[in-house]
Design goal:
By secondary structure, this protein is mainly β. Helix content is about 0%, strand content about 60%. The chain has strands at about 1-10, 10-20, 25-30, 35, 45, 50-55, 60, 65, 70-85, 90-95, 100-105, 110-125, 130-135, 140, 150-155.
């Protein structure tokens, strides 16, 4: 998308074109059924298959990876849901290029529970952001779309 900005320099008017990209995605975890992503004894990548929006196609619903197509500041949000368990928390880790950025975590012995988190990150072209379910955790989703992963470009650098 081209955006024209009027600029004045020493009292003179002119136009400058700046190239920007529109990038945004939002997806829920499960596309067609409901239930828990069961506990595994290791971390697993979460793949958010029910895509609501994928402007710019930077999110891949087959792999769960968001790959930055332009250098800029991006904002990501995570909302996860689970049902209480004395032995299995509900948790997910946001990862940038294999680096742990933040965790959303809750652990109650019973009842429904939700955890959320968000961050703004400077990404270079080709940087990858994704979610991993923490080992021995479980996450729930259904037709109400309780568990979501979203991100968008705030501005290019």
């Amino acid at each position: 998308m081209n955006i024209e900005h009027k600029m004045s320099k020493n009292g003179q008017s002119g136009c400058q074109k700046i190239q920007t990209k529109q990038l945004a995605f939002s997806a829920s975890l499960l596309a067609s059924y409901y239930g828990n992503i069961r506990p595994f004894n290791t971390e697993i990548n979460l793949i958010f298959r029910n895509v609501f929006t994928n402007i710019g196609n930077a999110y891949n619903p087959d792999t769960g990876l968001f790959t930055a197509p332009v250098r800029g500041v991006y904002h990501f949000e995570v909302h996860i849901c689970g049902y209480g368990s004395s032995s299995h928390p509900t948790s997910a880790v946001l990862v940038k290029n294999r680096q742990h950025i933040f965790m959303s975590y809750t652990h109650l012995p019973s009842g429904g529970q939700k955890a959320s988190n968000g961050v703004s990150l400077l990404l270079e072209i080709g940087d990858v952001v994704y979610l991993r379910m923490w080992a021995n955790s479980r996450i729930f989703d259904d037709h109400n779309r309780h568990t979501t992963f979203s991100g968008h470009l705030l501005f290019t650098m």
